Structure formats: C-alpha cells, structure tokens
Amino acid sequence: MPEDRDDDDAELFRTAIGPVRRMRETVAPPSAPRPKPRARMAERDEAHARDEFRHALAGSVEPLDAGDALAYRRDDVPPRVLQRLKRGEISVQEELDLHGSDSREAEQLLRAFLHDARQHGVGCVRIIHGKGLHGTASIASGGMPVLKNLVDRLLRQRADILAFHSAPPAQGGTGAVVVLLAPRRPRHS
C-alpha cells in the first residue's frame, strides 16, 4: 500500500502545478583557473640584479677589449682552481653559443642556461660569446665587444658562480669562457 500512496501523491502534485516543460540541459561554466604561484622575492632579486647590471654597463666597470681574457674567482675558491680553468683541466659538461644574439636575448638565454645547468647538477659550462670583432652592436658600444662584456658582468654578479676564465685557445680562447658553478643545495622541507 505505501507504493499506491506515493503514486497518488505524485499524481496530486502534477495536477496541482499544471503542465511543465523540461528545461534544456546546460553544462556548468568552467571555474576560473587558479593563478600560478609566483616567486615574488626571486623576481625582485632578479630585477635588482638587472638594475645593478645595467648600471655597471653605464661605465662603472672598465670594459673589456676583444683580446682581453675574462677571469674571476670568489674569495673562498683557491687560486689553483682558476689556473685549472685557464688550462682547460676541468671538463665542460654543457655549452651555450650566444653568437647572433642581441644583448637582451643573450642576457635571457644566459640566465636560463645557468639556471637550468644548476638545476641539473652541471658543474662546469662553456659560454661562447665571440670576440666582438664583427658585430654591428660593437659600433654603438665604442668598438667594445658587447656580448663579452655582458657575460663578464652577469657572471660576476651571480652568487652561484664560483669562478670563470676565458677558454684555452683550443676551446675558443678569448671568444669563450669556462664557468665553474656552485653545487646545488638540496631543498629541505
């Protein structure tokens, strides 16, 4: 009997509301995507480093000529490490060629390359910047090699660079630089 009563109630309801028409089925709109998290402090640090770099380009550091060797080591790195880089005794694991890049593109490529190399545990890289003898940008820079000076200044400003030196003659000489990267520290959760 309870089933008969349910049927009666349903019929009574339908009679009370009258004729109905079925609504079209619609798909719910997709929810708005969540914004991706941003490393705001890292972005600020990068912006600050770029500003510092641009100030250095303005003339606070003596620019390098085409034949000048690049050389740098952090104070905590023994001098013999720089000598080993100079002689080509440390094996290069990855290489970046900046030939044909303008300074903005070269800066972006170099930053991305160094970040990627460090993330993958690469310890030593070679960056080919050229000697700056044939570029049109060297005319605007007073004859100074633009990419070579850019690479020199950018590498000096990075905390993850232990040392660098112009490559041995067989590996590009003063048109390339061999860079020793600091090992990546594991993140602790």
From TrEMBL:
InterPro entries: Smr_dom (IPR002625), Smr_dom_sf (IPR036063). Residues 96-182 form the Smr domain. Pfam families: Smr. It comes from the Bacteria. Residues 22-48 are annotated as: Disordered. PROSITE patterns: SMR. Coiled coil: none annotated. This is Smr/MutS family protein. It comes from Lysobacter niastensis.
